[in-house]
Design a protein that fits this description.
6-stranded parallel sheet; 10 strands
């Protein structure tokens, strides 16, 4: 029984050693067929969410020190940070420029961005595009699952005006971070039109871009975004091929606390690990859809 058991164990080990690379190869071929690499020369976009120097249970955050290291490393690697205007212009270029252009975006518009911009980004002359959840300006984020931590506060309109005066650009992330694919008619239009009007009335800014909450959209939502007067809209990882540039389903690379300068490079550049990062982030984004489901039962949540 001993020798037989040893043989079975070796056969099992060999099976595992063959199976894992086979699965990885299958997933790679599937990804290459379905998604592929973004067009060479097209500008890339990063999407951040929270900044915190204290540990959070969720993944959509990073520390201020890590963020600063990341932007400095990207600059040293030859990336040029561009603003919203240059990014939108690039979408209409018949031939993409062969430069490493990068648009920096933050979803949700949390208060920590105020100090980060003036102390880190402004001295480096790095443009910034922030998407605001307008009904929560100056308020804590009861729309989000708290996971037992202190709620985060959103930028106030006064802070938005001060940042805009220094060149920060702002777009809409809806009124209250609702999944727009679950809304219809006036409820859907209200998320898009009212939030855009609030940014104009409170900060004097014409919001040109929209960011889909949770990255979710469908044909009906896209049509509503166009009808609301936006010039473009961002998702995270759209359902179409990465080679397709859709002005109303723009791709962004999400950045999480588990990301390092190395994984950031894998997200942005054509390399063998690009697809690993893509699948990792698509998986994380899919799990994020638990947020609107679970927050229905959260005490203190706005109804």
């Amino acid at each position: 029984e001993g020798p037989a058991a040893g043989t079975d164990s070796r056969l099992f080990d060999m099976f595992v050693l063959i199976l894992i690379p086979a699965i990885a190869l299958f997933l790679f071929i599937l990804w290459r067929t379905r998604y592929q690499y973004p067009p060479e020369g097209s500008p890339r976009t990063l999407c951040y969410h929270k900044l915190s120097d204290s540990f959070l249970l969720e993944g959509t955050w990073t520390t201020r020190a890590r963020f600063t290291t990341q932007v400095d490393r990207l600059h040293s690697r030859g990336y040029t940070f561009i603003g919203q205007h240059d990014f939108l212009e690039s979408l209409d270029e018949s031939v993409q420029k062969k430069t490493n252009r990068l648009l920096l975006t933050f979803d949700d518009g949390y208060e920590q961005l105020y100090d980060l911009y003036f102390e880190v980004l402004a001295p480096r002359q790095i443009p910034l595009l922030v998407f605001l959840v307008t009904a929560y300006a100056g308020r804590t984020n009861s729309w989000e699952l708290s996971l037992g931590r202190k709620p985060f506060r959103h930028l106030s309109w006064q802070q938005v005006r001060e940042m805009a005066a220094r060149g920060v650009e702002f777009g809409s992330h809806g009124l209250n971070h609702s999944d727009l694919t679950r809304l219809w008619g006036d409820a859907l239009a209200d998320q898009l039109v009212t939030s855009r009007r609030a940014i104009r009335d409170e900060a004097g800014i014409d919001a040109r871009c929209f960011s889909y909450p949770f990255g979710r959209y469908n044909d009906r939502v896209v049509l509503a975004v166009k009808n609301a007067g936006y010039d473009a809209a961002f998702s995270l990882y759209p359902r179409h091929s990465n080679r397709q540039i859709d002005r109303f389903a723009l791709r962004r690379n999400a950045v999480y606390i588990i990301d390092t300068p190395m994984t950031l490079g894998c997200k942005l550049e054509k390399n063998p690990l690009f697809w690993v990062e893509e699948m990792k982030c698509r998986g994380i984004n899919a799990v994020a859809m638990l947020t609107p489901m679970l927050t229905r039962f959260q005490p203190g949540r706005d109804k």
